[in-house]
Amino acid sequence: MHKTLADQIEATGGRSSGFDYMRIVLALAVVCWHSVATCYGHEAQFVILSGPFRSVVAIILPMFFALSGFLVAGSLERTKTLVMFLGLRAIRIFPALGVEVILSALILGPLLTSYALGAYVTDPLFLRYFRNLIGDIRYYLPGVFENNPNPGVVNGQLWTVPFELECYILLSMFAAMGVVRRRLTIVFGIAVTAGVLIVHQFIQDGGAIERNSGPIYGKCLVLCFLAGAMIYLYREKIRFSLGLCAVSAVAAVALIHIPYGDYFLPVPVAYLTVYLGLLNPRKVGFLSGADYSYGVFLYSYVIQQAVMSAAPWAREWYWNILICVPLSIVFAAASWHLVEKPALGWRVHLKTLEEVWISIKAKAPPLQAFSNWARGVKAT
């Protein structure tokens, strides 16, 4: 009898350390990749993406989204209501994002802008930047990083946030419609969506078969998320196999270089990601009880741009990495311990709200649930 993904999940107690390693490694890989844009300009990234190293960098974000899809699908299964599920997603994303946006706009901006303070805070770009708080991404603050190799961009990697939110909304819609229980619907949906996107891209390219040379499209990342969720739903039927992992890795690398191959990437990259994530090596150091990957994601690009502005001599990829990776980890640690971990403590209140919601739906008196919630708030 072949070992399945579900068997491996059970063997690790549902807490395999592979995902912890993958999150931080992928986050640091993003920092290294962004050293190109922040040192030499955005166009330099396209040069690399057009060459043989495309597969090394173009697979990073698809793996991130596939990992998220697998884990978030598990979170959805464990929650009783969509109220709880969406609440958990909100407290994981928005508190830390809000702190980063506010620090960038109110501290970093005034320190580094070429504008007078009055002109800075009255410029329309200043107010627009706060749209990042709700996932409506804006990259520019007035007079900030104007002379950098990638001019004006304060936090370029936030471009993935709307697609991440789209993933959560889609998964919630699937759950509300009962699609999660009808697993084949997700398989069909991924295939149809990929086909539609290929046709759309073909039309945009004027009927020409264009070689993959740019970044992975946001919609492809959404498909990778859904593929990760699909693999979780089929975990009891899919083998946990090193051979399948190797085949998936080869297929993923090949597809990244084939015209429109990005749209066929989700399933192999999702299996590769899940297999590696379900490995369970011993945790070391800061990985025990902490997740710094989101903080690295939030702060690294801003740090890289700030360092490139303050130290033009450091505008080489190796200096960028040597200086900015440690700084990013420091900020990520502060974000985890001061913002993210405390925000996750709000789960107790979400749980009580969920009980209230269930009571209301069942037309039962919710006063006891409200009382429990009030006692929880008082205790904290």
Provide the fold topology:
Blueprint (H helix, E strand, L loop, with lengths): L4 H7 L6 H23 L1 H8 L4 H5 L1 H19 L3 H31 L4 H6 L1 H6 L31 H16 L6 H22 L13 H16 L8 H16 L8 H13 L14 H18 L6 H28 L2 H15 L5 H13 L1
Describe this structure in words.
The protein has 380 residues and is mainly alpha-helical. It has helices at 5-11, 18-40, 42-49, 54-58, 60-78, 82-112, 117-122, 124-129, 161-176, 183-204, 218-233, 242-257, 266-278, 293-310, 317-344, 347-361, 367-379. Helix 2 packs across helix 3 (42-49), helix 5 packs parallel to helix 9 (161-176) and helix 16 runs antiparallel to helix 17 (367-379). It is globular, with a radius of gyration of 22 Å.
